C-alpha cells in the first residue's frame, strides 16, 4: 500500500488526524470533494475580508490543552462573541443579562431584574410545559419569550413554537451582571488571518487532493491505503441502506456593501418572525477589519433536501434510530474509522471535534 491512511474529508477532524499521524511517522493522504481544504471552517476572501463561507465560526473552549494546540498553528485574536438582537428595530444585548433587562424594562439592579422576571413568569404560570413555547414562558416569562425567543426559534426550526418539543430548551441562562460575552468558556477568539491559517498549519507537508469525491473513485482510493478515515456522511457510506439521515440546512446570502461599517458588530440576530433571515453576520468584525468596504451575510434556515449542504443533524427519535443502525455496522467495518460531525451524525463544536480526533489518534 502506498499510504497508511487515506483521510476522506479535509475538515478539522481529518486535518487533525492527518497532522498527528504524520507526526508519528505515518504516511497520509487527505482528499476532499470540495474545491478547497478546511471543511466548514473554510474562509473565502472577498474585499480582503475573510468570509466564513459555511456560517460564522467562533472558537471557544475551556480546555487549555486544546487552546494551546490550536494556538501552536496560528495565533488567535481576542474576539469575544457578544451578539445583538434586533426586534422590530429595537436593539437588545445577548445573552440575557442586566443590559438586556434594562433595555426591556429599565430595571437597574439585579434585585429589580429578578423581581421583574419572577413577576413575568408568574403572570403566565405554566405548571407542566407541553411544548417549547410553554417551556420558555415557564423559564423567562412573556417579554423575553415574545421579543427574543419566539420568532427566532420558529424561523430556525421552520415550525411553530407550540409544535416544537419542550426539551429543545432545557435551560435559558440569565445573567444578573452586565456581561455581554456569549460564551462562558475561558478561552475564545478567531485565528489571526482566518481559519485557513489553522488548516494550512495542520496540513503542512501532507499530501492533499481537492475536488475528489470518495464515492466516485471508491475502489481505486480504497486500494491506496491500509486504513481509511471517513468524515463524510455515514448514511452515504453505507449507500443509504437503512434510510437517509435528515438535517437542517441554511442558505447564505452574501453582499458586498460600499460602506466601512454596516452594523457595528459581527453578529446581529433578527428575532421577529416577519424577517425571513435569522441573523446578519458582518465578517470584518471578527478580525477588527479596517477595510474600505464590508461584506455581510444573511442567514436563512431551511429544510434540508438532497443536494443541500447538511448543517445540523436532527437528533429526534426517528433519525437517532437510523443512525444507531449505521453506527452498529460502522463498528464492524474493519479498515475504516468514522469520525467528525457527518460520520457521527452529531453536532460538534470545533474544540470538541479536535478533541475527538486527538482521542481517535490515541486509540490508533
Ligand atoms: P467538516 O464538515 O468540516 O468536514 C468534512 C469534510 O468532508 C467536508 O469538507 C466535506 O466536503 C468532506 N466530504 C464529505 N463527503 C466526502 C466525500 N464523499 N468525498 C470527499 N470528501 C467528502 N463550532 C464552533 O466551535 N464555533 C462556532 O461558532 C461554530 N459555528 C458553526 C456554524 C454553523 C452554521 C455550523 C453548521 C457549524 C458550526 N460550528 C461551530 C461547528 C463546526 O463547523 C464543526 O465543529 C466542524 O466543522 C466539524 O469538522 P468536521 O471535520 O467534522 O466536518
TrEMBL record:
- Top-level taxonomic group: Bacteria
Q: Name one GO cellular component term.
A: cytosol
List, for all copies, the residue spans of the domain called UDP-galactopyranose mutase C-terminal: 147-347
Q: Which UniProt keywords apply?
A: FAD, Flavoprotein, Isomerase
Q: List the molecular function annotations (GO) for this entry.
A: flavin adenine dinucleotide binding; UDP-galactopyranose mutase activity
Keyword presence, Flavoprotein: yes
Return the EC number: 5.4.99.9
Q: Which SUPFAM superfamilies match?
A: FAD-linked reductases, C-terminal domain, Nucleotide-binding domain
- Obligatory cofactor(s): FAD
Q: Which Pfam families match?
A: GLF, NAD_binding_8
Q: Where is the signal peptide?
A: none
User: Which family does the UniProt entry place this protein in?
Assistant: Belongs to the UDP-galactopyranose/dTDP-fucopyranose mutase family.
Q: Which NCBIfam families match?
A: UDP-GALP_mutase
PANTHER family reported for this sequence: UDP-GALACTOPYRANOSE MUTASE
Query: Could you tell me what this protein is called?
Result: UDP-galactopyranose mutase
Tell me what organism the protein belongs to.
Answer: Polaribacter marinus
Gene that specifies this protein? glf
Amino acid at each position: 500500500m502506498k499510504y497508511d491512511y487515506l483521510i476522506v474529508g479535509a475538515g478539522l477532524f481529518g486535518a487533525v488526524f492527518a497532522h498527528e499521524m504524520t507526526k508519528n511517522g505515518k504516511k497520509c493522504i487527505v482528499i476532499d470533494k470540495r474545491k478547497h481544504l478546511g471543511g466548514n471552517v473554510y474562509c473565502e476572501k472577498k474585499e480582503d475580508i475573510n468570509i466564513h463561507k459555511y456560517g460564522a465560526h467562533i472558537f471557544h473552549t475551556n480546555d487549555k490543552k486544546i487552546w494551546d494546540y490550536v494556538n501552536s498553528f496560528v495565533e488567535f485574536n481576542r474576539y469575544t462573541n457578544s451578539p445583538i438582537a434586533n426586534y422590530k428595530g429595537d436593539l437588545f444585548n445577548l445573552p440575557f443579562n442586566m443590559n438586556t433587562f434594562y433595555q426591556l424594562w429599565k430595571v437597574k439592579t439585579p434585585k429589580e431584574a429578578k423581581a421583574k422576571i419572577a413577576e413575568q413568569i408568574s403572570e403566565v404560570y405554566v405548571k407542566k410545559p407541553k411544548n417549547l413555547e410553554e417551556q420558555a414562558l415557564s423559564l423567562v416569562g412573556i417579554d423575553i419569550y415574545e421579543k427574543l425567543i419566539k420568532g427566532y426559534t420558529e424561523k430556525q426550526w421552520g415550525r411553530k413554537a407550540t409544535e416544537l418539543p419542550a426539551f429543545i430548551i432545557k435551560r435559558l441562562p440569565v445573567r444578573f451582571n452586565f456581561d455581554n460575552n456569549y460564551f462562558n468558556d475561558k478561552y475564545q477568539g478567531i485565528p489571526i488571518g482566518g481559519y485557513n491559517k489553522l488548516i494550512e498549519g495542520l496540513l503542512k507537508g501532507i499530501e492533499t487532493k481537492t475536488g475528489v469525491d470518495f464515492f466516485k473513485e471508491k475502489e481505486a482510493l480504497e486500494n491506496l491505503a491500509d486504513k481509511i478515515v471517513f468524515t463524510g456522511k455515514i448514511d452515504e457510506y453505507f449507500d443509504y441502506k437503512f434510510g437517509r439521515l435528515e438535517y437542517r440546512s441554511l442558505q447564505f446570502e452574501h453582499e458586498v456593501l460600499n460602506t466601512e461599517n454596516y452594523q457595528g458588530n459581527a453578529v446581529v440576530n433578527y428575532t421577529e418572525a416577519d424577517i425571513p433571515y435569522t441573523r446578519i453576520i458582518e465578517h470584518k468584525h471578527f478580525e477588527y477589519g479596517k477595510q474600505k468596504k464590508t461584506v455581510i451575510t444573511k442567514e436563512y434556515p431551511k429544510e434540508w433536501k438532497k443536494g443541500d449542504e447538511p448543517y445540523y443533524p436532527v437528533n429526534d427519535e426517528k433519525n437517532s434510530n437510523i443512525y444507531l443502525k449505521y453506527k452498529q455496522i460502522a463498528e464492524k467495518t474493519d479498515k475504516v474509522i468514522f469520525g467528525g460531525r457527518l460520520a457521527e451524525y452529531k453536532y460538534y463544536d470545533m474544540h470538541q471535534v479536535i478533541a475527538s480526533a486527538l482521542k481517535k489518534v490515541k486509540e490508533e
